[in-house]
Structure formats: C-alpha cells, structure tokens
Amino acid sequence: MADLVVESLTTMPNGQYYRLILRGESPLLDCRPGQFAEVRIDQTDVLLRRPISIHFVDKERNEMWLLIQKAGKGTTALSSIQRGNRLNLVYPLGNGFNATDNDYRHPLLVGGGVGVAPLLMLGAAFRNLGVEPTFLLGARKALDLNELDEYEKFGRVFLTTEDGSLGEKGFVTQHSVLSSEKFDGVFACGPTPMMKAIAQYAASHDIPCEVSLENRMACGIGACLCCVEDTRNGHQRVCADGPVFNINDLKWQI
Amino acid sequence: MADLVVESLTTMPNGQYYRLILRGESPLLDCRPGQFAEVRIDQTDVLLRRPISIHFVDKERNEMWLLIQKAGKGTTALSSIQRGNRLNLVYPLGNGFNATDNDYRHPLLVGGGVGVAPLLMLGAAFRNLGVEPTFLLGARKALDLNELDEYEKFGRVFLTTEDGSLGEKGFVTQHSVLSSEKFDGVFACGPTPMMKAIAQYAASHDIPCEVSLENRMACGIGACLCCVEDTRNGHQRVCADGPVFNINDLKWQI
Amino acid sequence: MADLKVDLGKGLTLSNPVMTASGTFGYGTEYADFMDISRLGGIIVKGTTLHHREGNPYPRMAETPSGMLNAVGLQNKGVDYFVEKIYPDIKDTATNMIVNVSGSSVEDYVATAAKINELDSIPAIELNISCPNVKQGGMTFGTDPKVAKEVVSAVRNVYSKHLMVKLTPNVTSITDMALAVEEAGADSVSLINTLMGMAIDARTRRPVLSTVTGGLSGPCVKPVALRMVWQVSKVLSVPVVGLGGIMNATDAVEFLLAGASAVEVGTANFINPAVGEEIICGINEYLDQNGMNSVTELTGALIV
Amino acid sequence: MADLKVDLGKGLTLSNPVMTASGTFGYGTEYADFMDISRLGGIIVKGTTLHHREGNPYPRMAETPSGMLNAVGLQNKGVDYFVEKIYPDIKDTATNMIVNVSGSSVEDYVATAAKINELDSIPAIELNISCPNVKQGGMTFGTDPKVAKEVVSAVRNVYSKHLMVKLTPNVTSITDMALAVEEAGADSVSLINTLMGMAIDARTRRPVLSTVTGGLSGPCVKPVALRMVWQVSKVLSVPVVGLGGIMNATDAVEFLLAGASAVEVGTANFINPAVGEEIICGINEYLDQNGMNSVTELTGALIV
Ligand SMILES: Cc1cc2nc3c(=O)[nH]c(=O)nc-3n(C[C@H](O)[C@H](O)[C@H](O)COP(=O)(O)OP(=O)(O)OC[C@H]3O[C@@H](n4cnc5c(N)ncnc54)[C@H](O)[C@@H]3O)c2cc1C
Ligand SMILES: Cc1cc2nc3c(=O)[nH]c(=O)nc-3n(C[C@H](O)[C@H](O)[C@H](O)COP(=O)(O)OP(=O)(O)OC[C@H]3O[C@@H](n4cnc5c(N)ncnc54)[C@H](O)[C@@H]3O)c2cc1C
Ligand SMILES: Cc1cc2nc3c(=O)[nH]c(=O)nc-3n(C[C@H](O)[C@H](O)[C@H](O)COP(=O)(O)O)c2cc1C
Ligand SMILES: Cc1cc2nc3c(=O)[nH]c(=O)nc-3n(C[C@H](O)[C@H](O)[C@H](O)COP(=O)(O)O)c2cc1C
Ligand code: FES
Ligand code: FES
User: Which ligand is nearest to the Cα of residue C221, counting in written order?
Assistant: First the structure.
C-alpha cells in the first residue's frame, strides 16, 4: 500500500479514457505485466477500491501509468483528480502474464477497448527480452485507439475499428494478420466476447493463450472469495490466482 | 431551489471559517435577515443538505454571502469548492428576525463564534431603516473575529475574546457596554449557553429578545418534524416556525 | 410517452407509480414551491393518530452512512384536527391524497380509520402497523402475524375504501407478515418502513437520538427493501408498493422490476425537493428507451 | 498507554479488543504484507464446514450505497483440509486464531466443532448459525430460538473451549436469540452477521448476484448493528462481541460504548488492509484522551 503522487492526467480524444501518470516518492515496487493495482477513491461515496491494470512502469522516472475508462461513478470521480494529489494504491496484485517466463518468438498481444492497458507493459517486457511483439488493438472507432506511438516503440501495431475509421474494419478476430502470419503465443485482454473469440482462434491454431479477466472484486488480495472464476481447478480467485489465466484452465465454451 | 455560482472562497485567519460569495445567474430571491439556505454538498458521502444562514446579500452584484465553519465532514468538504463551481441551494428558508417589522431605536446584535453570520445582514437592514445597530461579537481569540470592517459599515462594533487578545476579555455577556448603555431590543445567534446568558440579560432588563436556533435538520422546509424545539406552543419546527424565536416562546430555564 | 397509469385496485388508480412516503412530505403543501405536486401518483400524508401527539423530544435525527435515523414519534394533531383543519386545505389537490394511519391499540386504529372513511377525497389509507402495541407490552403490531391480522381485520370492518398496509422490515419473515395482512383484507401492502437503528456520539458518549434508537431510512436500506419487495411480491396476490432508499428513477425501476406496482419516495425529498417529478420523468424515459408501452410491463419483470 | 486487554472468559483473552471478521480476512496470511497481524486481538478465519464447498457461482458481489452484498456461499475446503493443510501454517501466529464454524445440519456443526476442539492452538470457535438448516427446509438456525438452542447445546457437548455464537440480524427479536444461545451454553455472542439484501441492474433487468439475494455489510449496516449490540448487551451475562460497519476507531468505540467487550472488523479490511492496526491505535488514543486506564471501562459506558 502506498500513496503515489499524480504527475499528470491526460484525457484521451474520445473523452472517455484518461491516462494517469503517478510518481512514487520512494522507489516503486517491482511489477510484472498483467498485474494490477487496487485504487482507493477518496471523498466520494465509492466504498470499495477499484482494480486497475498497471499500464506501464517507467523505472527511470519512477512513474506508473494507468489507463482508465470512465465506466461508472468511481472511475468518473477519479477523472477529476488533480496534479499533485495523492492516490492510494495497493499494488502489485495478481499473477501477471506468464509470457516472460517462456520462450515466445512471435507473441501476439490482443487488446479491445480499455483492455489494451496491460499490453503496453507486456510489449515492453517482450522487447526487453529481445522479442518483437505484435499488437493487435481493436475498438469501436478511431477515437478509442490512443497512444499508438507508445505501442510502436515496442513492436508492430495492427488495428481494427468496428466502423472502419482506422485500421481494418471489423473485430480484432477478423484482422488479416491472423491468417497471414503465424504466432506462437497469444495474450489477450478486453471484453469477454472478444477474448472468447481470440481463445477460439488460438485453440484452432494450437497456440498457447493467456487472457486477463476482469471479475468484480472486493478485497483484491485473495481474502474474500468474491471474484472467483469457475475453472478446471474449481473456483479460483481472479485477484490472486489470476487475473491472467491460461485458456486451458478456464471452462469457457469455445 | 437554485444553482448559484461560486464567485470566491476566502479562508479566514483562523483557518476554520471561510466565506463563500455566490453569484446568481438570475436575480436572487428576496431574503430576510435570519433566514437560511439548505446547501447540497455533492460528490461526497454527505447525504443531507446542510443549513447555513444567509450572511449577507449584495443586491447590486446579485451575490449571496455565506460564512461557514468547518464543523464536520460536510462543511469541510465544501471548503474545497472552486471558483466557478455551482452550488445547489434551497433558499430562503425560515422566518428570519422580526426586527425590521418593529420600531427599535437601539438594537443590540449579539453573536458568538460563527453565529455572527446572520447578524451582518440584520445590521444592514437596520441601517437601511435609519437605525444604527450595535454589534457585540465574541469569540475565543482574536483570530476568530473576522470581517470587522463589514460590520463597521452598518453600526458600532464591540468585541470580546475569551483570551483577551481582542476587545474585552471574557464572554459577550460580561462586556461593559451591556451596563453602560440601554438597548431596546436584543438579537442573538451563537452557542446555546451564550444565547441563554443573553436571554437572561434581556429578561432582567425587560428588553425583547430574539434568538436564532441551530437545531439539527433533515428537510429544512417544515415537512419532516426532525428539527423541533419544545416551545410554549408545543413542538415547533425550527426550520419553518423559526429559526428565530422570541425567548418568551421558548422553555429555556433562564 | 409510455402509459404510466397504475391501478392498485379497489378504487385506487394512480396517474403514475410515484407517490411520496408518509412523514417525509408533510401534507404536500410544503413542497408546492418546488414542484407541481398534483403530478405525483399520490401523496401519503403524515402519520395520523386518534389523539394529538407531541412526538419525541429533540434530538430526533442523526445522519448515518448513506442514511438517516429519525425518532419523530408520530407528532401530529390527531385525526379530528386533520378532518376539520387540514382536510379542507388539501382535499382539492389533484392527486390521490392518502392518509397514513397509526395507533397504539386496535381501538385507536379502528376509530381513526372510521373517521377517515367519511372523507370523500381520501381514496385510501396506509395502515402503519409498525407502532408499539401498548396493550401487548410495546411489541409492535407489525412483527407478529396474528396481531397484525387482528388489527387489519378490525380496520377492514370499518374502512370501505382502498386499504394499504405498510409493513416494517424488522421481522424474521416478511412474507409471513404480508400473507397475514393480505388474508385479513388488505388491498395492497407497502414496504418497507424504517429499520430500527441507533447512533452514538463517541465524543459525548451519548446516543444521538433522545429515544436512543430510531428508524433508519435512505439509500443504505435499499438492498434490504428490494429483497423484501421481491420476496413479498412473489407470494402475494394483491399489489405491492415498494419503498426504501429510492433516490432516483433507476432506483424506482429496480423496485418495479423486483415486483412493486408502485413506489414511494421518502428521504430523497429532503435532498431534492423536486425529486418526485424527476423520478416520474425518468421512469417514462426508461420505458421509452426500452420500447415498453406501459409501466405495468416493468412490474416483476426481473429476469432470474 | 492504556490497558487494552480483554478477557472474554473460558480461556479467551485478547491483547486488545480488535479482531477481524470471518470471511473478510482469509486466514490472516493474505494481510501479512500490510500489517503485523499478530498485533490483532484475534483473527476469525474463514467459515469452515464439514465438507468441501465450492460456494456460489460468480457474480458474488455488488456494491451498494455505503455497503456491499456478498454471496460467497461459504466456499472452503472442509474441516479436514483445514486441520491437515491450513492449521499447521497458521497455528503459530501469535494471536488468537478462531475458527468460524458453519453447517447445514446439527450433525455437521457437531462433527466440525469436535474436530476443531482437538487443535491446541485454536482457543475458540465462532459458531455461525445464520446458515440455512437443510433439515428444516432452509430456515436458518439463527432465526428460531428453539433451533438455535438445539444446535448450540449439541456443539457445547463436544466443544470444551470458548464457544462464541454469531447471530444473524435478520430476526424480529435479537434478544430472544441471544438469550437462547446463552442458555444453551455460549461463552460469548458476536453480532451482527450480514443483513439479507438484494441488488438489481436496471439496465440488464437482472439481479447482480448469481443467488439473487446476498448478505449486506459495511458502514450502511452500522446503525442496525449498534442497536442490536446495545439491546443484547443489556440482557446478557456473557460478553458481547460487536461488529457491522466498523471502519475506524471511532466506530469501534461506539460499539464498546453500546456494550460490546470486543469488536470485529470486516468489510473495512478490503478498503484499508491495515485498518485493524489503525483501530487498535485509535482506541488507545481515545482512552488516553479521555483519561481511561483500561478499555474495559468503555464497555457499556453509554450515558443514557
Ligand atoms: C484485474 C482488473 C483490471 C482492470 N483494469 C482496468 C484498467 O486498466 N482500466 C480500466 O479502465 N478498467 C479496468 N478494470 C475495470 C475497472 O475495475 C472497472 O471499470 C471499475 O471498477 C468500474 O468502477 P466504477 O466505479 O467506475 O463503475 P461502477 O459504478 O462500479 O460500475 C459501472 C459499470 O461497470 C460494471 N462494473 C463494475 N466493476 C466491474 C468489473 N470489475 N468488471 C466489469 N464490470 C464492472 C458495473 O456493473 C456497472 O455496470 C479492471 C478490472 C479488473 C478486475
Ligand atoms: C438555521 C441554521 C443556520 C446555520 N447557519 C450556519 C452558518 O451560517 N454557518 C455555519 O458554519 N454553520 C451554520 N449552522 C450549523 C451548520 O448547519 C452545521 O455546522 C453543519 O450542518 C455541520 O455539518 P457537517 O457535515 O460539517 O458536520 P457533521 O459531520 O454533520 O457534524 C459535525 C459536528 O457538528 C454537530 N452538528 C451537526 N449538525 C449540527 C447542527 N445543525 N447544530 C449543531 N451541531 C450540529 C455534529 O453532531 C457533530 O458533532 C447553521 C445551522 C442551522 C440549523
Ligand atoms: C422523518 C421521517 C418520518 C417518518 N414518519 C413516518 C410516519 O409517520 N408513518 C410511516 O408509516 N412512516 C414514516 N416514515 C417512514 C417513511 O415513510 C419510509 O417508510 C422510510 O423512510 C423508508 O423510505 P425512504 O428510505 O425512501 O425514506 C418516516 C420517515 C422519516 C425519515
Ligand atoms: C465477503 C464476505 C464473506 C463473509 N463470510 C463469512 C463467513 O464465512 N462466516 C461468517 O460468519 N460471516 C461471514 N461474513 C460476515 C462478516 O464476518 C461480518 O459479520 C459482516 O460482514 C458484517 O461486518 P462488516 O460490516 O464489518 O463487514 C462475510 C462477509 C463478507 C463481506
Ligand atoms: S477480490 Fe477478494 S478474493 Fe478476489
Ligand atoms: S428539518 Fe424538517 S421540519 Fe424542520
């Protein structure tokens, strides 16, 4: 648990997403891609903390990035936090992607909507290992796809929009790169239907696939059993045993 | 019910009081001295509105002044409102002082702590009628006595502090002006012990006396019966039948 | 514009499902500056007893997390004063003026209800059975199905118009209570009244309320209220009126989905004195957005 | 520094009155990163049943105004797993490790309690009688004094250490329940468990929880909890442990003033995983500021 200082808040062009850059006053704890923070939202009638993925960690500047969608009262209230304010975080939480423990050569990182958040840090981790990741990012419209230059620092970026305003028209699972190239690992985060479709693609191509779940949480640290996912090993805690699961462990109908 | 715009927020030297100047976007409703507003405090976990006296109305600028003490979570949260924000008020509420309906020549206006708030507007009303009011304001220490120039615009100002740091040392009821001069009406607002002592002074000098009560309120408009004071006419609603009562109607032991 | 009309039976038809809750809306007149009160589906006026009551000593209110406690104690001038002095002023309000009737003995309830029965412009009473039963040692009428049945039957005998019975949530089985009053002749039930609670000031080491305990209302009670409305509406044949913590149209829709035919708004009036009208508009919008023609389609439409 | 020690009797002595509530603190280990858990007066571990339980399907949680609903459904690996796998890991925690025991039949409760009785480092169980009684058609053990008495007596026969019984607030008379379990041999009672509530998503028209209804906890229930602690502590001879919505030291002091000898902190752990330690410090400060030498002076010190 630590108070971080708000360095900047940037509202994205769609007006619905914003990026928070938080600075640690002491060195940030080590975070793995796919881990998350539980953010306390003060001075509102929001009771519980809100789980937010760690978008990126800039070790040199001792900064943590969060990419947040105004989904309801908590994330909306948080969007009016000011530079210099403190934000209380419990972090790092969860298991994170297993990506970096393995020998992937052509990893595919698929994100939908605000689900792109953990992929930036994951892409950076691959690049650090000398592997160029492929990002496949999808959204409804061009305005929802942001910070593309950041992703491009670490890998190739392919895009889809539902209205065709940027990249290929359609869903990420319809993108041509999926048939034109061969990947050896898939890492996905986004709306459940998207993740299921991607899991299907991975299964049919026999590629290992990890997805990051966003079950509703209370404690975020494995104590309350509110966030469970029904897995092949029974009810598992998404906050502590996840949020990243190998699709083989899930009971999804794919 | 109206949204007023915050024109300025001035924190007083003691750090505990602040003055809000609110501007109406349409002409402010007519207010009588001693009336109050029910202020809605948004974006916090404060549920009910908070009753705050109308401190002053500047008709020319179409501005309302409030003088507020940080007493708890509502008034503290409100102290961080920003210029340009809107504040939702139900006003004017309550009966107000009967002062201006009568022929007072030497009215004494006694305030303690933040209870001075309604007296500024009352003093202005007397001055408008061609009567010079006498303000007797008391507080714990000099830092709690503010805006004295504002009161001096309308009448003479006498002060007491408990620590003797400004004016006479002691309580308002010990001030020498009470024995050196003769008043024909007393109007008081402040802590209950102070008001009781002043009521006693008025009774022993046979001077009519009105006090403004601060009972805890829920609706503020006379509907819920939460704020009642036990009077000679039974339980009366402080918000609608008061907040100003003639001490003869109260059942105070004085 | 969807059809907002609701028929609660036995002559009680509402232009829309939004009423205001007893004790939170005075006699309606207090709110006339803030909204057109005749637009409400109904106004349930203050708890009325046979005799004048001064109510409890001050302090009567404590704010709690997302709620408030009250200990007003049914302060009112008695039914005769209501009939002579208040009724003439409110009888022409163009909405359903419903009287909330309270008492501490069966005889009191009966006598009060009989007097209200004579008032042409009062289409219904809401029988508040959460008051202590003085004859039975302070146990409330509303916590024992047998006693509730007795008082409702007795009132039913003298009251010929719509008899709504208001249930207290401070019971082990709300369905037993609801079934009992239905059997005794209630035309509808409303729930919930306040939950019994308490607040303490740690600084002074005293209870905040003069009566130590009081009734909890506001958003904090909504989950309990919704649960009870859902449970009761599944077992009852007569309509259910839902209340407890409704602050906006979304909350009201939740109660309708849970099984309520109409709702009452209480504590919310204190925070937004025009909230009743806003909720009516909001329900209409919800129906339009969801392609529904009548608010009756919402009642009990929860997908489980 | 005041004396914070509390003796709950029958061998259960707490270094301070602050425990953590079952189901909200795992087995304690989950919180070890955030505080020195051995500083707590006690840790009441997860609800343990005779057999393994998978609990209810997801979703199990809904946030409500100043509160939350949960429908975890007692997910746990059963008492044998606890004895073999978990107990060895936690038995050396330098505080009172108390096991919350749940069941759906008297036999289950008895069998589970008997197994826990053998564990040297477990000084007490907290008997959770708010679970549905499968033999009596789902009615909970905790809502009928006779049934409660039966289960508590049966457990008392096999359990020789401190037997704390946890009461559910979903009853008409909490004092009847408390008196029944005291008579049956409880060494202390803890209250309140969760209030039964419900949340609905108006957009999808579905209940938020997979089980439709769930248990309400958090600040919103504090007024009800305080009231019940006050009522119960007036009639009981054994100590009362108070909980329900305690978020900070002031809340804890309120429960002590109302009559509790100790408190449990539940939902607050989710928002501030170090809250237990902060509450201990805060109570100590309160005692110092008020010139009190021992926390026991606070218990029941409400001035009414
Ligand atoms: C491990 C994890 C990582 C996450 N990472 C991010 C991130 O990086 N950026 C981001 O913007 N969001 C992320 N989320 C989702 C984020 O936590 C929710 O959007 C947020 O909690 C909503 O809070 P609110 O108060 O704004 O909305 P609320 O008012 O609580 O709810 C708004 C709507 O969202 C629904 N909702 C609430 N919580 C969740 C949830 N956990 N999952 C799905 N729906 C929910 C509600 O039912 C409601 O319909 C993550 C969630 C998890 C579990
Ligand atoms: C008619 C009227 C006019 C008022 N005018 C002013 C004014 O001009 N300026 C000003 O600063 N204050 C005024 N007050 C008092 C003001 O309403 C309270 O200080 C405020 O409601 C406290 O709210 P809070 O949320 O800050 O404190 P809370 O957190 O609610 O409470 C803080 C402390 O104050 C106590 N308290 C709460 N409400 C009241 C109350 N109504 N009376 C006494 N004690 C209370 C609580 O018990 C607690 O100890 C007035 C009150 C009334 C009834
Ligand atoms: C100040 C106050 C006074 C009340 N008086 C009565 C009453 O006289 N009769 C009654 O049946 N209910 C009374 N109630 C209960 C409300 O009608 C309603 O049942 C309860 O407040 C729950 O609804 P809410 O959460 O919308 O306020 C009163 C409630 C409050 C807050
Ligand atoms: C997620 C969750 C799980 C719970 N599990 C249990 C349990 O297994 N056994 C039990 O007796 N109480 C259980 N409770 C109830 C708490 O122990 C406590 O009685 C209740 O939450 C009220 O306290 P609070 O408001 O401080 O949370 C649970 C509560 C929550 C929120
Ligand atoms: S949120 Fe509590 S266990 Fe996952
Ligand atoms: S505050 Fe409601 S009647 Fe005065």
Answer: 3
Q: Which stretch of DSSP H or E encloses residue D43?
A: strand D42-48
Phi, psi of C260 (to 5 degrees): -80, 145
From the CA of A244, which ligand is nearest?
A: 1
Residue with tokens 């020549």: B105
Q: Are C219 and C245 in contact (CB under 8 A)?
A: yes
Using most ligand atoms within 8 A of CB, pick from B48, B65, B75, B81 the residue to mutate for ligand 2.
B75
**Ligand 1 center to A226 CA (angstroms):** 14
What contacts C51, CB < 8 A, 6 or more positions away?
C78, C108
> Which of B47, B230, B235 comes nearest C66 by C-beta?
B47
- DSSP class of residue C85 equals I
Q: C6-56+72-199+216-297 adopts what CATH topology?
A: TIM Barrel (3.20.20)
ipTM for this model: 0.96
Q: Is the pLDDT score of B100 beyond 90? A: no
Q: Which of D142, D139, D190 is nearest to D162 (CA)?
A: D190
- Of all helices (H) and strands (E), which one includes residue C198? strand C195-198
Tell me how far CA of residue C183 lies from CA of C93, C178, C179, C227, D280, in angstroms.
32, 9, 6, 22, 53
Domain ranges for chain C: 6-56+72-199+216-297
Instruction: Read off the pLDDT band of A99 (50, 70, 90).
Output: confident
Q: Which chains touch B (3 or more CB pairs under 8 A)?
A: A, C
At D7, give phi and psi (nearest 5°).
-105, 110
Q: What is the pLDDT of residues A37-46, one digit of tens each?
A: 999 998 788 9
CA–CA distance, A177 with B170 (Å, rounded to integer)? 85
* pLDDT of C139 strictly over 70: no
Q: What is the pLDDT of residues D209-254, one digit of tens each?
A: 999 999 999 999 999 999 999 999 999 999 999 999 999 999 999 9
**What tokens appear for D286 in the block?**
């309160």
Q: Which three-class secondary structure string do you get for A128-174?
A: HCCCCCEEEEEECCHHHCCCHHHHHCCCEEEEEECCCCCCEECCHHH
Residues of C in contact with B215 (CB under 8 A): 58-59
Comparing CA positions, the residue from A237, A244, A241 lying closest to residue A208 is A244
Is C220 annotated as catalytic? no
The residues lining ligand 1, judged by C-beta closer than 6 Å to any ligand atom, are A 36, 46, 50-53, 67-69, 71-76, 114, 117, 214-217, 243; D 63
Looking at the DSSP bridge assignments, the partners of residue B188 are: B110, B211
User: Is the Cβ of D281 closer than 8 Å to some Cβ of chain C?
Assistant: no
Domains of chain A: 2-93 (2.40.30.10), 99-212 (3.40.50.80)
In chain A, which residues have their Cβ closer than 8 Å to the Cβ of D271? 40, 47-49
Q: Do B218 and C31 touch (CB under 8 A)?
A: no
**Whether the Cβ atoms of residue C166 and residue C126 lie closer than 8 Å to each other:** yes
Q: How far apart are CA C78 and CA B35, in angstroms?
A: 30
Host H or E run for residue A179 = helix A177-180
- The pTM of the full predicted model, rounded to 2 decimals, is 0.97
Token representation of residue A225: 């059993």
Chains in contact with D via at least 3 Cβ–Cβ pairs below 8 Å: A, C
Q: What is the dihedral of CA D28, D32, D34, D39, to 10 degrees?
A: 70
Contact between chains at B224 and C70 (C-beta distance less than 8 A): yes
Q: Name every chain B residue with its beta carbon within 8 A of the beta carbon of A45.
A: 44-45
Tell me what the mean pLDDT of segment A95-117 comes to.
Answer: 90
Q: Do C68 and B217 touch (CB under 8 A)?
A: no
What pairing do the DSSP bridges indicate for beta strands C67-70 and C162-166?
A: unpaired
* 3-state secondary structure (DSSP) of residue D28: coil
CA distance C15 to chain D (A): 22
